[in-house]
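Support reply, case 0932

Customer input (verbatim):
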Amino acid sequence: MGTLGAILKHPDDFYPLLKLKMAMKHAEKQIPQQPHWGFCYTMLHKVSRSFALVIQQLGPQLRDAVCVFYLVLRALDTVEDDTSIATDVKLPILISFHRHIYDCEWHFSCGTKDYKVLMDQFHHVSTAFSELGKGHQGAIEEITRRMGAGMAKFISKEVETIDDYDEYCHYVAGLVGLGLSKLFHASQLEDLAPDDLSNSMGLFLQKTNIIRDYLEDINEIPKCRMFWPREIWSKYVNKLEVCFLPFFVLISGNI
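Our regenerated output:
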């Protein structure tokens, strides 16, 4: 179904979507003109899927901080995900990443496509970070430090149990919720949300993504790590790879 067909099928959605489109155009006009900010918002659209749409609805001060926060963590995630990086190289980068964001000359080439562009030109993100308020910088540094340390812990540790699952999801997603709460608080827009609420939402979103993407992870070449814990899927199958087989194959026992 094309765009026109979708509008005709859901006419009540047209006006809200039009308002959102106009709001985005207005927000784009407020983006600072400096090249580093132009790079940050361009990359935000390329590597964040739907998050860019939400981030651009924020006020200017908070929008810039959340944009940089997202790109810093996306860069950290790119290092974690790149299976071509040797462990002895990857670990110190993850652990010290929170210090690199203060270095406007630092970059590390890894990842592919738009993620590689982000890493190769990370100095733009660091420059934008240097222009944020101290409260925002402190929040981003703290979450980056804690997330990098957690990612490093799980480079050599498999997610086998539900406790592992909760811990890993806390590091890579729960901390994002905590960081966003800190950024809103630093902007004097909200009180600090209880950590358990921020963490719980992050765990829910990350677990949804892990379950959704498990087949993509299985088929990835080179082979990537699996994050859906054995303690869950081993109740139903002996090997995670057979979960996607047709039901009649599973019940036949010929696997």
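We compared this against your earlier run and they match. Two observations from our side: Residues 32-239 form a domain with the Farnesyl Diphosphate Synthase fold (CATH 1.10.600.10). The longest helix spans residues 162-186. Please reopen the case if you see a mismatch on your end.
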